[in-house]
Amino acid sequence: MRIAFFVNSIESEAPYYTTTSLALSARARGHDVCYVTPDDFVLRPDDSLLVRAVIPHPSKTKDQDAFIAGLRAEVSKETIDVSNIDVLFLRNDPSEDADERAWAVNVGAMFGRLAVERGVLTVNDPNALATAQNKLYFQDFPESVRPTTLISKSLDEIRSFIDSQKRGVILKPLQGSGGKHVFKIKSNKESNLNQIFEAVSGEGYLIAQGYLPDAVEGDVRLFLMNGRPLEKDGAYAAFRRVPAKGEVRSNIRASGTATKVKVTAEMLSVAEMVRPKLVADGMFLVGLDIVGAKILEINVFTPGGLQNLEKLYDVNFSDLVIEALEKKVSIRQSYGAQITNATLATL
Fold first, then answer.
1. Per-residue buried b or exposed e for 110-130, using 16+ beta carbons within 10 Å of the residue's own CB
2. What is the pTM (predicted TM-score) of this model?
3. Which class would CATH give 2-132+321-345?
4. Which pLDDT value is given to residue 175?
């Protein structure tokens, strides 16, 4: 099996990324892997679709640092017809390209659709990802699992919303990730409120969410695969992201810390509530960020943290992900186009 990982750029890949863990697990299971970026698709006049892929060094190293060093050292690319790729794994973060490479934001979804048309299993399903380019996708899920939320560019609307929330609000851009420009606002009387509005509104629409008191302890990242909690040997793929002292953000990129967590019946109930839509949308691998009985975000592009889990619980969840892809490719070989990509993605 050959898996192509679609990422923002080779230079931005890091040893601790979930994509690295997935690639190493795939190679350990005897599969070929390659990396593709937004620059690398080619649609020829004969309607053939190709990718100019970077092939990692053939060494069987299990060391993440050595693997990424070898990946970055590759200067040549191999042109591959997508018909020779079994799985296109879309692992880019569109928000990282929004400012300086706006043209690259939709490339994964656009060419992912073309790959699907040519029989390539593409996860997560590109048609659904096209509708999930920002946090507005979250509003399609049941109200019972969402914090009270306002989305607007009107500062008057946002001020009124702040007044209505006695515990304060979390303010952040509609588009973005990694905890960038996320602020906790206690009331309209805060002296730096105008500066916060200016910083966040520069990125477009704003999301204001009612603050959840349990968030002081951080949130829980719970992985779902095929719409269900990822689990192995009684251990769930979940960890608590604890914010650094004085921080409202629990993102690992924002100095949050990953710690063990006991997955509760309440968390599983929340996951079950969002399962039907995730399955219908063909969302193969997803990360839920949970606080209490609410979900702060649903990460469908590049949910990260599998390596944190492997260190915390000594369980290789990446192997489960690759094993699931193996089964899907086998089904595709047996049934061909009779089963749609979106259905196969979460089968």
1. ebbbbbbeebbbbbbbbbbbe
2. 0.92
3. alpha beta
4. 76
